[in-house]
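Students often ask why we bother predicting the structure of a whole assembly rather than each chain alone. The short answer is interfaces. A chain on its own may look different once its partners are present, and contacts between molecules only exist in the joint model. In this exercise we take four input lines together and write out one structure for the complete complex. Read the inputs first and try to guess which parts will touch.
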Amino acid sequence: MYQQAGSVGQDEPMSKPLYRQVADTLRAEIADGVFGPGDDLPSERELRERFDASRNTVRQGLQLLVSEGLLNSSQGRAYQVRSHEIFVLNASKFENLQFSQREDGDSYDNEVLHSGRQPHQEFRVEMVKVPQDIAERLKVAPGEQGVLRFCRRFVDDTPWSTQATHYPKWLVDAHPRLAEPDDIEEGSTRYLADRGIEQIGYHDELMTRMPTPEEARELQIGPGVPLLIWIRTGFSTDKPVRCTRTTFRGDLNHITYDLGDLRALTTRGDLH
Amino acid sequence: MYQQAGSVGQDEPMSKPLYRQVADTLRAEIADGVFGPGDDLPSERELRERFDASRNTVRQGLQLLVSEGLLNSSQGRAYQVRSHEIFVLNASKFENLQFSQREDGDSYDNEVLHSGRQPHQEFRVEMVKVPQDIAERLKVAPGEQGVLRFCRRFVDDTPWSTQATHYPKWLVDAHPRLAEPDDIEEGSTRYLADRGIEQIGYHDELMTRMPTPEEARELQIGPGVPLLIWIRTGFSTDKPVRCTRTTFRGDLNHITYDLGDLRALTTRGDLH
DNA sequence: TAGTGGTCTAGACCACCGG
DNA sequence: CGGTGGTCTAGACCACTAA
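Now the answer. The structure tokens for the assembled complex follow.
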């Protein structure tokens, strides 16, 4: 059934390694719905028999699927097909993504509150040295102090994203509430705007990479789930005012932008 | 030196598995520059001695780093520290990302042409059934035919991204050059605009995930490199006109958006 | 407690790369 | 050719989960 690796077929098929056959077969079965989201896969022992392979080989195949983000695994329990509910953030509309607060009008476009999920967030404020990369974006001297307002968001106790906003020292000196450890009721962007510091332009950067071990721990993600990173630098008329780095679990989040005239979108229909 | 797994320390440290110690140690050394971009790592045999571990255990640790995108590996050669040159695409400025063509003014913001790299692209046009997800975005019946204009871009023969644009049948019927197999000189968006079909709004979606095996082959990426996916739907005054899905190697590409008034950014300085 | 996955070993053979 | 990584096996012990 499953060809041995190494001994190459005469002419063309150049047999795939066994562990890849295992992965490909299971991947196809997941795609076909033989195993649906949340289902348990057969145990390693059963797969070993089915594919006539050693345990390590079966594990190597399963590991591949884990690293593709298709499976979850944890000690003592069967491999499980991942299921995804995706949160969509419209970055061109929403200035502050604030959970469980005024959802006036259009404040964010999520499927969270509309599906009985329970969002919450952890919040903290620190005085820290502005990290090098942020300092460049804020155009402040490397090593300068600044305020970090940090937030980690959860949905039903699943970590969803972390958000770190840095404010330069000159701004904090002029508007000290930025450094206070409470959530700013009206939103810090609004607070600044009310005090004459208006953000009239944004520079957004989007990128992806695999999490570091710390990030993986913080967002409780295993291998195989990439991060989606969104860095927004907010500008007043003459200089950068703040820099926010939001780190999302890539498997649970999409970001959208609406540009230009979208009157044709008013009948949104089944558009994602 | 390196604690055994299993036998738990009395009170707290709960020793890490050996393969993680291998990975963590090497990761730190890469971060510290002990091994720079492009450098070879010591061979598995040497690492086995250094960490006093079996070959499989060392391999497991190395595999972790590969899956984090830090290392490349291929048969017969040493593990190599990945090096990244990142291409930045400003999605709010550039309608068509066209390689090696009129770079009038600001047409794209890359470090490619400015560093002596050689870009090129493969191009093809097909008549295909519009895929389900694209059909939703184009608001056409699922299963309907449409034109697919496909492009794969390279930099110095490294696959960089693939781009697939779907046009609905009604548009192609009215403007048949969309279905012709040549590159449209002036750009297809321009071609349409000249014929009265102007795209006045865009809906962009950004997401990340690990590549499927096909995608990994097409972009020549190994495990540990996530994809960055950008889906742009272009709208005329009353309906969607085209849908473009661009699939980037996440390790080589960033996307940016400029929103609002960015006069403060004119002195771009060291801002990325 | 039985069954699952997590970690680890020792050794084998192979394919590929470079000198 | 020698050295590298790629694949695979057989078996061991452990930690965790669920019944």
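Check your guess against this: The first strand of chain A starts at residue 71 and ends at 72.
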